[in-house]
């Protein structure tokens, strides 16, 4: 439990990444990730820990008492609602799981929530995995949400678009803030992405963007 407390302190108090904690404590990244996930599922998301968590044995029981598959009579989330809510901006599976656990404290843990929802989606919407050869394609798109850019001199806040480029084979990603989705900014994003990747793929696949598409075939 000494390692667990150290992991929580380094993550919640000092804001270290999983890799940094792993290197500092000489633990595997899988162990660090598992401990942090168990802590979040138990509602421990800040440091210092809430009162009543000083006993190591009680803390271990809280985090690791659920082993194996949850019982069948556990309350099943409304997966249709989860799927519908995920289409809204800013909504994540973690947020929906936290709402679910607030209503059902003995419900699924976060890991089971994600795995079961993924299985639900697979049953409803079978998908095809598109495999790309290395260097074959770069996919580009503007992310759905904007990010605020603050002028340090005037304090004026401007909403910036987020341009994203991804290599199909490796999923290596380049992202940048852009003041608009107009043609000059769109071309600039493509050029900077290619410079970042250090080469040119055989094809660039973009979404149906007005700046980049003049006529749909």
UniProtKB/TrEMBL annotation:
One of its GO terms (biological process) is DNA-templated transcription initiation. Residues 4-86 form the HTH IS408-type domain. GO terms for molecular function: DNA binding; sigma factor activity. It comes from the Bacteria. InterPro entries: ArsR-like_HTH, HTH_IS408/IS1162_type, RNA_pol_sigma70_r4_t2. This is Transposase. Pfam families: Sigma70_r4_2. Gene3D superfamilies: Homeodomain-like.
